[in-house]
Amino acid sequence: MAEAATTDLYHETYRLLGGMKTLKTRRRTADAWVSLIRGGFQPSTLTAIAENTGVPVKYLLELISLPERTWARKTKNDEVLSLPQSDRLYRIARAVARATEVFESRGTAVDWLGTPNRALSGETPFAILDTEVGEEQVHTLLGRIEYGVYT
Asked: CA triplet 86, 91, 97: central angle to 5 degrees?
């Protein structure tokens, strides 16, 4: 059961990041994700997630610590994002996929991820996805919401 849920999250994350068009592979396994992230995502993955979630490009750039001018240069010169930037973008897409699964609505999921939360010391879930610990907190909180545990 857990393996099927992970596969579904990988599939939805893949779709949010632009799928074959931006990632240039059909593989969606854990080892494929490691390789893709280490190799760096194309700048078009950021555009794809913005289009697929409604999250503004400018906000995504802020979340992955990428200056707008640098992103424009990378886009123009077809340069890949750095490993930390690609990893953060993956974390954002995966969190959107998981929150969509919990809330059964992408709009509600994105709204929740962008709203300050007392359980996260007043930070937005999006804002703390820049660290592994923050990502764990977001996924734990989503699990609590899914199972009706008061948080």
From this structure: 125
**In whole numbers, what is the pLDDT of the chain averaged over residues?**
93
**DSSP secondary structure of 41-86:** --HHHHHHHHHHH---HHHHHHHTT--HHHHHHHHHHTPPPPHHHH
The answer to whether 94 touches 132, Cβ cutoff 8 Å, is no
Q: What is the pLDDT of residues 9-19, one digit of tens each?
A: 889 999 999 99
Distance CA 127, CA 40 (A): 21
Task: State phi, psi for 65 to the nearest 5 degrees.
Answer: 55, 50
Distance (Å, whole) CA 79 – CA 89 = 16
C-alpha to C-alpha distance for 64 and 144, rounded to whole angstroms: 26
Domains in the chain: boundaries: 2-146
Q: How far apart are CA 48 and CA 109, in angstroms?
A: 17
- What residues contact residue 143 under an 8 Å CB cut-off, 6+ apart? none
Model pTM score: 0.92
